[in-house]
Specification:
Length: 399
């Protein structure tokens, strides 16, 4: 699909626009900037599992600022604040003033609650239905999801590990440098953004946001950054780690052998080029039901850009069940979590003699260790809350 202009609600020409007014002075529940000291207590409107944690709101001055660049990038992205996300948050502030009610959040994913939710739901559904363009609908849906999750997680989740602050695991994670010939792109569904058991976040926690970059599905600025990087690298330097979606899937070991896969035949030249222009590996980070739509969007953009029928996909041959299967079973044993897939890719690439000197096995081990840390943190939290640490198996179709 061709690039679009940066989205903004004021440019959508809607019959029911979100009016932007000065920020309301009424504080919202469980919302404060992590970098700002709290100044007033917030109402506790939480489910029992969260009611024991004190929650406070930021000052009126901080509310007026919306989402700062520092806060936005603190959640794991290196981009600027998406325009539509910022405008939706300003719309929330305006609606607070219009309805004389404050935002409150609770439940999984930091969902809106209370009377404000009722009013906002009416308004956002009318706005969504007024959009005639499917692309604008997707961008609005994604931006609203991100805005709600961001506001609902302030002061509750650690910005680095996305776990409740009392369960923060950051001190247990060991950073590791990723070989400069590889760059990961985490193409994440908005419903996985700030999700506590999400594993894609472990890649930039381990390797840094420049080596493993977050790209949010449906967020214009993020997707343009990713595709601009692909244009610069060239289509032969981009691979999608997604099973059974190519007529002729490659293995990780095929990448460096066929001329068309890199556009170069001399291996020494290939590796010298990789140090300047790395291979881009796209990891689709979402539920298996959402990932199908995400792949279709990638495929449509790929065809529009390079007129190829299918993006080059990689299937891993040595992938087994990850540690996260204990808490979050996958639809079948050949489906695994995002971080485990990245570790599997690094391990398979390490099997190539030409790549064995780059320590990819150690980098894969660093990801696996991070998975163990996340599993331990989630298990500890479940036990403390009196919840089960086993999940119903879902592998009946893979015997």
């Amino acid at each position: 699909m061709p690039p679009t202009h940066p989205p903004s609600l004021q440019f959508l020409n809607l019959t029911m626009p979100i009016h932007v007014r000065p920020a309301c002075a009424v504080p919202a529940t469980r919302c404060f900037l992590a970098s700002s000291p709290p100044t007033m207590p917030a109402k506790k409107t939480w489910v029992a599992s969260r009611a024991s944690t004190a929650r406070e709101s930021s000052s009126v001055a901080e509310w007026a600022k919306g989402v700062s660049l520092e806060e936005w990038q603190g959640w794991g992205t290196s981009s600027s604040v998406p325009a539509m996300v910022a405008e939706i948050i300003r719309g929330f502030r305006a609606l607070e003033q219009e309805t004389n009610s404050s935002m409150s959040f609770g439940g999984l994913g930091g969902k809106l609650q209370g009377s404000f939710k009722v009013q906002e739901d009416i308004k956002h559904r009318a706005l969504y239905n007024s959009l005639r363009d499917s692309e604008k609908k997707l961008q609005f849906f994604s931006a609203r999801q991100i805005a709600c999750r961001l506001l609902g997680s302030r002061g509750y989740l650690c910005q680095k590990c996305w776990l409740p602050m009392e369960d923060c695991m950051c001190s247990k994670l060991v950073p590791c440098s990723l070989w400069c010939g590889i760059k990961f792109w985490l193409y994440m569904h908005p419903k996985d953004f700030l999700r506590q058991n999400n594993t894609g976040k472990l890649l930039w926690q381990t390797f840094g946001s420049q080596a493993a970059t977050l790209c949010l599905f449906g967020i214009h600025e993020h997707e343009e950054i990713m595709w601009d990087a692909f244009r610069h690298s060239g289509k032969n330097m981009v691979w999608f780690l997604y099973p059974n979606k190519s007529l002729s899937p490659k293995s990780a070991q095929d990448i460096f052998f066929e001329g068309p896969s890199t556009g170069l035949k001399d291996q020494k030249v290939v590796f010298s080029v990789l140090e300047e222009k790395p291979l881009n590996f796209v990891l689709i980070d979402g539920t298996w039901s959402n990932s199908a739509a995400m792949y279709r969007r990638l495929k449509d953009r790929w065809i529009s850009l390079w007129e190829d029928e299918d993006p080059p996909c990689i299937s891993l041959s040595t992938l087994g069940a990850s540690a996260m299967h204990k808490l979050r079973p996958q639809p079948s044993w050949d489906h695994t979590c995002t971080a485990a897939a990245a570790a599997g890719l690094l391990s398979e690439l390490h099997l190539r003699p030409e790549l064995s000197v780059y320590g990819l096995d150690k980098q894969a081990e660093a990801v696996e260790n991070a998975l163990d840390v996340l599993l331990d943190a989630l298990t500890t939290r479940r036990l403390r809350m009196g919840r089960s640490i086993t999940r119903k198996e879902r592998h009946n179709n893979c015997i």
